[in-house]
Specification:
8 strands, binds 2-phosphoglycolic acid, single chain, about 260 residues, alpha/beta, eight-stranded parallel barrel
Length: about 260
């Protein structure tokens, strides 16, 4: 399997600049050995410049958690892709369910952000996923494929390395209620199949699809062992360096196991 695993931290609305500095200083030496894993840390805008500066020329990529798809203008409170690059970001989460549900982001906005990030050379981590009600009613795939299709429509001549998807069932986020490894594989396998049909085989084989939702050191290995799962987007368990490093190590071990 040619895909490099990725472990991405999502701090959400947590940490001051001082706390971000302490975290990054502790993380960098410990992440340096996991040379088979791409590590991204998606931080609040206020910490981005500092985390970007500290992680420059290291194996850790500083990322943001959102941006707006226009480059400049009368968009009070928004941050653009060139601004993120200027602050040192190499990645950005797009369409997290908290943004969709609490801040009203639509499939259309998410798709335009994904496209703008790719064009700006910022790696978008595009989130898709269903609610508990939708899953219980048998509507998981309708929801997820609808969100995905709108992003696919926007992508033209994009290679698989320039975008990452994250399947994050909303009922598993921050709840401790992780999807079973089989559920994660089932959804992510279907996402990859749809990408193959709609975008092409090369794209589908090379694009990374992460799982997100209550990933922690105790469950990471079995989730990472699933064939189509290329890593994780992690909220709660990324806030402490120790547990995030355990997740990076779990991803690194998965690579070691597949090679033997
Ligand atoms: P969680 O969050 O790991 O705390 O469930 C994941 C996410 O929201 O990306």
């Amino acid at each position: 399997m040619a895909r490099r695993p990725m472990m991405a931290a999502n701090w959400k609305m947590n940490k001051t600049i001082r706390e971000a500095e302490e975290y990054t200083a502790a993380l960098l030496p410990r992440a340096a050995d996991a040379d088979e894993v791409d590590v991204a840390v998606c931080v609040p805008f206020t910490c981005l410049h500092e985390v970007g500066r500290m992680s420059e020329d290291t194996r850790v990529t500083a990322g943001a958690q959102n941006f707006y798809f226009e480059d400049s203008g009368a968009f009070t409170g928004e941050i653009s892709a060139p601004m993120l690059l200027d602050a040192g970001a190499g990645a950005v989460i797009v369409g997290h369910s908290e943004r969709r549900e609490t801040f009203g982001e639509t499939d259309d906005m998410v798709a335009r952000k994904a496209k703008r990030a790719v064009d700006a050379d910022l790696l978008p981590i595009v989130c898709i996923g269903e609610t508990k009600g939708e899953r219980d009613a048998g509507g998981m795939w309708d929801k997820v494929s609808g969100q995905l299709s709108r992003v696919i429509e926007e992508l033209e001549n994009v290679d698989g390395e320039s975008i990452v998807f994250a399947y994050e069932p909303i009922w598993a986020i921050g709840t401790g209620d992780t999807a079973t490894p089989e559920d994660a594989q089932d959804a992510i396998g279907k996402i990859r199949d749809l990408l193959e049909e709609e975008v092409g085989e090369d794209f589908a084989e090379s694009v990374r699809i992460l799982y997100g939702g209550s990933v922690k050191p105790e469950n990471a290995a079995e989730i990472m062992a699933q064939e189509d799962v290329d890593g994780a987007l992690v909220g709660g368990a990324s806030l402490e360096v120790d547990s995030f490093v355990q997740l990076i190590d779990a991803a690194q071990n998965t690579v070691a196991q597949t090679e033997h």
